[in-house]
Amino acid sequence: MKRRNFLKNIGKLSSAPLILNGVGVSPFVSPGMLEFFNTCTGIEDRTLVVLFLKGGNDGLNTLIPIDQYDTYINHRPTIGLASSGTGAFINLDSTLGVAEQIGLHPSMTNFKSMYEAGKARIIQAVGYPSFNQSHFKSTDYWLSGRDGSYAAASGDGWIGRFFEHAYPGVHGNPNTQFPDPLGMQFGDTKASLSFHDCTSTYEAVNLTGQNPGELFGLLNGLGTAPHADTPLSEYGAEIDYIMSVENSTNVYGERITNVYNSGTNSAVVYPDSYLGYQFSLVARMLSGGSKTKMFMVHKGGFDTHAGQVMAGTPHIGEHAELLTDVFDSIKAFHDDLTSLGMSEKVVTVVFSEFSRRITENGSNGTDHGNYGPMFIFGDAVNPGVSGTNFDISQINDSGNMLETEIQHDYRDVFKTLLQNWMGAGDDILEPAQMLEFNIMPELIIPEQIVDPSCYISLIALPAELSFFDAQLTPEQHVSLQWETISEINVDHFAIVRMQEGRPETEINQVQAVGESTTSQFYETFDREPLPGLNYYRLKMVDRDGSIKWSDWRSVNLPEVALQHAKIYPNPAAYDFNMVFNSNQQTEGMVEFFNMQGQLVRTEQVAIREGFNKFTFSVNNMIAGTYVAKINLNGLPAHTFTLVIKR
């Protein structure tokens, strides 16, 4: 793997200074987080593990509606599971109501045991409005926390938005309370959309294909001393990107390696599969002291258009093997955590981007469907079934469930886990775009539901912002203006600039009035904006170190283009003319270099939009050959070869 691709897969974690294991760590944590740590012991140690079943798990052969068995087998005469004899489904719970009677796929014996132990819950008929049956679109919706009403793909995910607002002192800034990355990903080399925040920053570490115990050895030495001046070009952007990723990941690599090597697994035997290995890594990282808040693991292969079952023996085949691996791995993971004394700290949630059609196809398989089940596991999970068997006679011409059969929006599940398990207050759920959905109080046992007094809530700075704006001036500078309605204990403001492919850079600081009950207006300038699209946001810093951010503002600095440029006469004896057309008004500089590369002369020029003509005397220049360069906004725009003869 090429170094840049490796670094991309690991993820850009932070450009903030961080040193671990005796070398020093940033101490910053917001006051709200410190209060949370001090008063709500145990909640800060909670972790959510998310398992994504990629490809579309067949929910109807996973959970068979016993009350509608005849209809079920009529829809699936070839792949339907038997109700008795060899390969028959397993009755989940005979004490449930008639409409809740579920038959489990015979490969789900370990799910049955977890359910009977009070550690598992089923959520029936989960989906979202305006359902999309494309793998790519539906996956994007589940990972971003959106639905089919969104026409365009989003660049942010529900976990990333939660991280960004729940942990503002940790988000992009590791510290003594959170030396670990907030998120960690296994099982897919592509960085999951779910971990991207509102700036599309990937707020996790992707350890897919990496041995955590050897990570620091692999990364050690990749970091580089800062370059004093990188070229303002695509090449320079690559250098900046690699430097920032290498230096920050180097630090995380040491922490991850030490945590992994400090951890252990119990004597529990995991399935000999990649999913089993992923779960064993999560358990070992937690055992080693990892404070990572969310882990995502993956299991592919669920796109079972053909060969879902073995002909004549529907309880055997590809789907049976997939389900065996999933639920055996989850059971081993929970048993491992129990043996390690950590099972009360972890909840696992399982989803797939869609289910399969109610009707089978002609290839011993099923095609893309819509609504399907979710599962949650853990000591804190309230066992049981949410919802009832959907009416499998209510299907459309394609063999899919009708839209009226959806019982739960998947975001109801995620919102409940964020609030009742992880402790997200409404002021975090709102910017995480989860507030409008429902809480399902039956998912977590009452004594484990986070009390509102222990919610992680946003601590707003005592600077109330009226507006923040960025505008391009005629001089091609960027004016940054903002106004506060009131200020209490505010120290200063800082302007942060970002451009695609480049790290965030603090370009200016402005001292705050600090204490004010009336509106205060501020302005500063970026006098050297980068060509192209620049993003700016305002950092408001309190005297106690708390930080609050404004939204991003963008300014596009069009690149100056010159056309029909030429010089004449050439060779020149006394003077020469330079003419060209410009697509905009700007300031420029003409530089003259001799053939040894030495700068011998500079001339400032005011360039107009449209036709330009400049006359330069060469009386004071000795005869010879020169290179004349036009620079616009600090970038070379055109080069001529000039000959002086006398």
Reconstruct the topology from this structure:
Blueprint: H1 3-10, H2 31-39, E1 47-53, H3 59-62, E2 63-65, H4 69-75, E3 90-91, E4 102-104, H5 109-116, E5 120-127, H6 135-144, H7 158-166, E6 183-185, E7 205-206, H8 215-219, H9 234-262, H10 274-287, E8 294-299, H11 318-339, E9 346-352, E10 372-377, E11 384-386, E12 408-409, H12 410-421, H13 426-429, E13 463-472, E14 478-488, E15 490-498, E16 505-511, E17 515-516, E18 520-526, E19 532-542, E20 547-549, E21 553-557, E22 562-568, E23 575-582, E24 586-594, E25 599-607, E26 610-617, E27 624-632, E28 635-644
Parallel strand pairs: 1-8, 1-9, 5-11, 5-12, 6-7, 6-8
Antiparallel strand pairs: 2-4, 3-4, 5-10, 9-10, 13-14, 14-17, 14-18, 15-16, 15-19, 19-20, 19-21, 22-23, 23-26, 24-25, 24-27, 27-28
Describe the structure in your own words.
- With 646 residues, the chain is an alpha+beta fold.
- The chain has three domains: 26-208 and 264-454, Alkaline Phosphatase, subunit A, CATH 3.40.720; 463-557, Immunoglobulin-like (Sandwich), CATH 2.60.40; 562-644, Immunoglobulin-like.
- It contains 13 helices and 28 strands.
- The strands form six sheets. Strands 1, 5, 6, 7, 8, 9, 10, 11 and 12 form a nine-stranded mixed β-sheet that branches. Strands 15, 16, 19, 20 and 21 form a five-stranded antiparallel β-sheet that branches. Strands 13, 14, 17 and 18 form a four-stranded antiparallel β-sheet that branches.
- α1 (3-10) packs across α9 (234-262) and α9 (234-262) crosses α10 (274-287).
- The longest helix is centred in the middle third of the chain and has 29 residues, at 234-262.
- Mean pLDDT is 85; it is low at 1-39 and 218-250.
